[in-house]
Design goal:
By secondary structure, the protein is of the alpha+beta class. It has a domain at about 80-240. It has helices at about 45-75, 80-85, 90-105, 120-130, 205-215, and strands spanning about 10, 15, 20-25, 25-30, 30-35, 110-120, 140-145, 150-155, 165-175, 175-185, 195-200, 220-225, 235-240. The strands form four sheets. It has a five-stranded antiparallel β-sheet with strand order 7-8-9-10-11. A hairpin with a 2-residue loop joins strand 4 (about 25-30) and strand 5 (about 30-35).
Protein backbone atom coordinates (compact mmCIF):
# COMPACT_ATOMS: atom_id res chain seq x y z
CA UNK A 1 0.00 0.00 0.00
CA UNK A 2 1.29 3.45 -0.94
CA UNK A 3 1.98 5.96 1.84
CA UNK A 4 1.38 8.98 -0.45
CA UNK A 5 -1.37 11.28 0.75
CA UNK A 6 -4.72 10.82 -0.88
CA UNK A 7 -6.02 13.66 -3.12
CA UNK A 8 -9.67 14.55 -2.57
CA UNK A 9 -11.74 16.80 -4.78
CA UNK A 10 -15.11 18.05 -3.61
CA UNK A 11 -16.58 20.81 -5.78
CA UNK A 12 -14.30 23.79 -5.44
CA UNK A 13 -12.32 22.43 -2.46
CA UNK A 14 -8.99 20.79 -3.36
CA UNK A 15 -7.40 18.81 -0.56
CA UNK A 16 -3.88 17.42 -0.90
CA UNK A 17 -1.93 15.88 1.93
CA UNK A 18 0.92 18.01 3.15
CA UNK A 19 -0.27 21.00 1.18
CA UNK A 20 -2.40 24.06 1.80
CA UNK A 21 -6.13 23.95 1.27
CA UNK A 22 -7.29 26.31 -1.47
CA UNK A 23 -10.89 27.41 -1.31
CA UNK A 24 -12.50 29.43 -4.10
CA UNK A 25 -14.87 31.54 -1.98
CA UNK A 26 -15.49 32.28 1.69
CA UNK A 27 -15.87 29.52 4.24
CA UNK A 28 -18.69 29.72 6.73
CA UNK A 29 -18.84 26.65 8.93
CA UNK A 30 -18.87 23.74 6.53
CA UNK A 31 -20.36 25.78 3.70
CA UNK A 32 -18.51 27.61 0.99
CA UNK A 33 -19.97 31.05 0.26
CA UNK A 34 -19.14 32.42 -3.18
CA UNK A 35 -19.34 36.10 -4.14
CA UNK A 36 -20.44 36.87 -7.67
CA UNK A 37 -20.68 40.10 -9.67
CA UNK A 38 -23.64 40.77 -11.96
CA UNK A 39 -23.26 43.18 -14.88
CA UNK A 40 -26.51 44.97 -15.89
CA UNK A 41 -26.72 46.56 -19.31
CA UNK A 42 -29.30 49.38 -19.70
CA UNK A 43 -30.91 49.59 -23.10
CA UNK A 44 -32.31 52.97 -24.24
CA UNK A 45 -32.25 56.29 -22.30
CA UNK A 46 -30.48 56.61 -18.99
CA UNK A 47 -32.43 57.72 -15.93
CA UNK A 48 -30.90 61.20 -16.07
CA UNK A 49 -31.71 61.51 -19.77
CA UNK A 50 -35.36 60.62 -19.10
CA UNK A 51 -35.53 63.23 -16.33
CA UNK A 52 -34.11 65.89 -18.63
CA UNK A 53 -36.58 64.91 -21.35
CA UNK A 54 -39.53 65.20 -18.95
CA UNK A 55 -38.35 68.62 -17.79
CA UNK A 56 -37.99 69.77 -21.40
CA UNK A 57 -41.47 68.56 -22.36
CA UNK A 58 -42.96 70.21 -19.27
CA UNK A 59 -41.27 73.50 -20.10
CA UNK A 60 -42.54 73.36 -23.70
CA UNK A 61 -46.10 72.71 -22.52
CA UNK A 62 -45.89 75.62 -20.08
CA UNK A 63 -44.52 78.04 -22.70
CA UNK A 64 -47.15 76.96 -25.25
CA UNK A 65 -49.98 77.43 -22.77
CA UNK A 66 -48.57 80.79 -21.72
CA UNK A 67 -48.45 81.94 -25.35
CA UNK A 68 -52.05 80.92 -25.93
CA UNK A 69 -53.13 82.94 -22.91
CA UNK A 70 -51.25 86.12 -23.81
CA UNK A 71 -54.28 87.29 -25.76
CA UNK A 72 -56.28 87.28 -22.56
CA UNK A 73 -53.63 89.36 -20.86
CA UNK A 74 -53.43 91.81 -23.77
CA UNK A 75 -57.17 92.39 -24.17
CA UNK A 76 -58.36 91.62 -20.67
CA UNK A 77 -60.30 88.42 -20.12
CA UNK A 78 -63.64 90.31 -20.00
CA UNK A 79 -63.27 91.10 -23.70
CA UNK A 80 -63.89 87.52 -24.79
CA UNK A 81 -67.33 87.02 -23.21
CA UNK A 82 -68.21 90.42 -24.68
CA UNK A 83 -67.17 89.30 -28.17
CA UNK A 84 -69.15 86.08 -27.80
CA UNK A 85 -72.30 88.02 -26.92
CA UNK A 86 -75.00 88.02 -29.60
CA UNK A 87 -76.26 91.49 -30.50
CA UNK A 88 -78.67 92.80 -33.06
CA UNK A 89 -77.08 93.75 -36.34
CA UNK A 90 -78.92 95.71 -38.99
CA UNK A 91 -78.33 98.38 -41.60
CA UNK A 92 -81.05 100.45 -39.95
CA UNK A 93 -79.11 100.53 -36.67
CA UNK A 94 -75.95 101.39 -38.61
CA UNK A 95 -77.71 104.32 -40.25
CA UNK A 96 -78.99 105.52 -36.87
CA UNK A 97 -75.44 105.66 -35.53
CA UNK A 98 -74.28 107.42 -38.70
CA UNK A 99 -76.93 110.13 -38.28
CA UNK A 100 -75.94 110.75 -34.65
CA UNK A 101 -72.28 110.86 -35.59
CA UNK A 102 -73.00 113.46 -38.28
CA UNK A 103 -74.46 115.75 -35.62
CA UNK A 104 -71.30 115.40 -33.54
CA UNK A 105 -69.10 116.14 -36.55
CA UNK A 106 -71.10 119.31 -37.29
CA UNK A 107 -70.84 120.63 -33.73
CA UNK A 108 -69.30 124.14 -33.61
CA UNK A 109 -66.13 124.56 -31.58
CA UNK A 110 -66.77 125.24 -27.92
CA UNK A 111 -70.24 123.67 -27.85
CA UNK A 112 -71.22 120.55 -25.97
CA UNK A 113 -73.76 117.84 -26.67
CA UNK A 114 -74.87 114.42 -25.51
CA UNK A 115 -73.88 111.65 -27.87
CA UNK A 116 -75.84 108.52 -26.96
CA UNK A 117 -75.88 105.22 -28.79
CA UNK A 118 -76.65 101.58 -28.10
CA UNK A 119 -74.34 98.60 -28.40
CA UNK A 120 -76.40 97.38 -31.36
CA UNK A 121 -75.99 100.71 -33.16
CA UNK A 122 -72.23 100.80 -32.63
CA UNK A 123 -71.68 97.19 -33.72
CA UNK A 124 -73.94 97.58 -36.76
CA UNK A 125 -72.06 100.72 -37.80
CA UNK A 126 -68.71 98.94 -37.51
CA UNK A 127 -70.00 95.95 -39.47
CA UNK A 128 -71.85 97.60 -42.34
CA UNK A 129 -70.11 100.98 -42.64
CA UNK A 130 -66.59 100.57 -41.32
CA UNK A 131 -65.31 97.03 -41.88
CA UNK A 132 -63.32 97.81 -45.03
CA UNK A 133 -62.22 101.23 -43.76
CA UNK A 134 -60.68 99.52 -40.74
CA UNK A 135 -58.84 96.98 -42.91
CA UNK A 136 -61.29 94.14 -42.26
CA UNK A 137 -62.92 91.84 -44.78
CA UNK A 138 -66.39 93.16 -45.81
CA UNK A 139 -68.97 92.98 -43.02
CA UNK A 140 -66.71 91.08 -40.62
CA UNK A 141 -66.22 93.96 -38.21
CA UNK A 142 -68.07 94.06 -34.90
CA UNK A 143 -67.94 96.01 -31.66
CA UNK A 144 -68.98 95.28 -28.09
CA UNK A 145 -69.09 97.15 -24.80
CA UNK A 146 -66.61 95.46 -22.44
CA UNK A 147 -67.56 97.54 -19.41
CA UNK A 148 -68.78 101.06 -18.70
CA UNK A 149 -65.70 102.74 -20.21
CA UNK A 150 -64.14 100.37 -22.75
CA UNK A 151 -65.04 98.61 -25.98
CA UNK A 152 -63.58 95.83 -28.10
CA UNK A 153 -63.56 95.94 -31.90
CA UNK A 154 -62.84 92.77 -33.89
CA UNK A 155 -62.77 91.61 -37.49
CA UNK A 156 -60.94 89.56 -40.10
CA UNK A 157 -57.78 91.42 -41.11
CA UNK A 158 -57.51 91.25 -44.90
CA UNK A 159 -53.78 92.03 -44.96
CA UNK A 160 -53.16 88.94 -42.80
CA UNK A 161 -55.14 86.43 -44.87
CA UNK A 162 -58.37 87.22 -43.00
CA UNK A 163 -56.86 86.43 -39.61
CA UNK A 164 -59.31 87.18 -36.80
CA UNK A 165 -58.00 90.08 -34.72
CA UNK A 166 -59.36 92.21 -31.89
CA UNK A 167 -58.43 95.43 -30.14
CA UNK A 168 -59.61 97.02 -26.91
CA UNK A 169 -60.14 100.75 -26.48
CA UNK A 170 -60.56 102.87 -23.36
CA UNK A 171 -62.53 106.11 -23.34
CA UNK A 172 -60.16 109.06 -23.01
CA UNK A 173 -60.70 112.73 -22.17
CA UNK A 174 -57.75 113.76 -24.34
CA UNK A 175 -58.93 116.27 -26.99
CA UNK A 176 -59.09 114.70 -30.43
CA UNK A 177 -58.38 111.23 -29.01
CA UNK A 178 -61.66 109.98 -27.48
CA UNK A 179 -60.59 106.35 -27.92
CA UNK A 180 -57.24 105.03 -26.70
CA UNK A 181 -55.93 101.69 -27.97
CA UNK A 182 -54.99 99.51 -24.97
CA UNK A 183 -54.41 96.01 -26.37
CA UNK A 184 -54.41 93.85 -29.48
CA UNK A 185 -54.57 90.11 -30.12
CA UNK A 186 -54.98 87.58 -32.93
CA UNK A 187 -56.94 84.32 -32.83
CA UNK A 188 -54.95 81.24 -33.84
CA UNK A 189 -57.58 78.69 -32.76
CA UNK A 190 -61.29 79.19 -32.17
CA UNK A 191 -62.02 77.78 -28.72
CA UNK A 192 -64.76 80.18 -27.66
CA UNK A 193 -62.53 81.55 -24.89
CA UNK A 194 -59.24 83.36 -24.29
CA UNK A 195 -57.37 80.15 -25.11
CA UNK A 196 -56.11 80.33 -28.68
CA UNK A 197 -55.63 84.12 -28.72
CA UNK A 198 -52.10 85.54 -28.73
CA UNK A 199 -50.98 89.09 -28.12
CA UNK A 200 -49.78 91.11 -31.10
CA UNK A 201 -48.18 94.57 -31.25
CA UNK A 202 -50.80 97.29 -30.87
CA UNK A 203 -49.23 99.01 -33.87
CA UNK A 204 -50.82 96.36 -36.11
CA UNK A 205 -54.27 97.75 -35.26
CA UNK A 206 -53.25 101.39 -34.83
CA UNK A 207 -55.16 102.28 -38.04
CA UNK A 208 -58.37 101.18 -36.32
CA UNK A 209 -57.82 103.72 -33.55
CA UNK A 210 -56.84 106.44 -36.00
CA UNK A 211 -59.95 105.92 -38.12
CA UNK A 212 -62.34 105.78 -35.16
CA UNK A 213 -60.94 109.00 -33.69
CA UNK A 214 -60.99 110.67 -37.10
CA UNK A 215 -64.70 109.90 -37.41
CA UNK A 216 -65.43 111.42 -34.02
CA UNK A 217 -63.64 114.61 -35.02
CA UNK A 218 -61.81 117.05 -32.75
CA UNK A 219 -63.92 116.44 -29.67
CA UNK A 220 -63.25 115.84 -26.01
CA UNK A 221 -65.21 113.47 -23.79
CA UNK A 222 -66.20 115.30 -20.62
CA UNK A 223 -68.06 112.41 -19.01
CA UNK A 224 -69.48 109.01 -19.85
CA UNK A 225 -72.50 107.19 -18.48
CA UNK A 226 -73.59 103.61 -19.09
CA UNK A 227 -77.37 103.18 -19.14
CA UNK A 228 -78.47 99.59 -18.68
CA UNK A 229 -82.23 99.80 -18.93
CA UNK A 230 -81.99 96.96 -21.44
CA UNK A 231 -79.19 94.65 -20.21
CA UNK A 232 -79.08 92.96 -23.61
CA UNK A 233 -78.54 96.26 -25.40
CA UNK A 234 -76.96 98.84 -23.08
CA UNK A 235 -76.56 102.50 -24.02
CA UNK A 236 -73.58 104.79 -23.70
CA UNK A 237 -74.22 108.48 -23.13
CA UNK A 238 -71.17 110.65 -23.78
CA UNK A 239 -71.05 114.30 -22.81
CA UNK A 240 -68.67 115.75 -25.39
CA UNK A 241 -67.33 119.16 -26.33
CA UNK A 242 -66.13 120.24 -29.76
CA UNK A 243 -62.64 121.76 -29.88
Amino acid sequence: MSNSPENQTNGEVNVSGGRDVNVSGDVAGRDVVKSTTTNVTHVGFSEKAVQRLLLLVGAMVFVTAACFFTGGVALGFAAFPALAKQVGSSEGAAQSFQNKLAQVQALPAGQTTLFSFTEDELSSFVKFNLSEQLGFAPQTGRARFVNDTSIVIAGQLESANNLQVAATFQLSNEPGQPLKLTGAAAQLFDTGSALGWVAIPTGVLQPVQDRMNELMGNVQILSATAIKTDPNNPTWELNIAAR
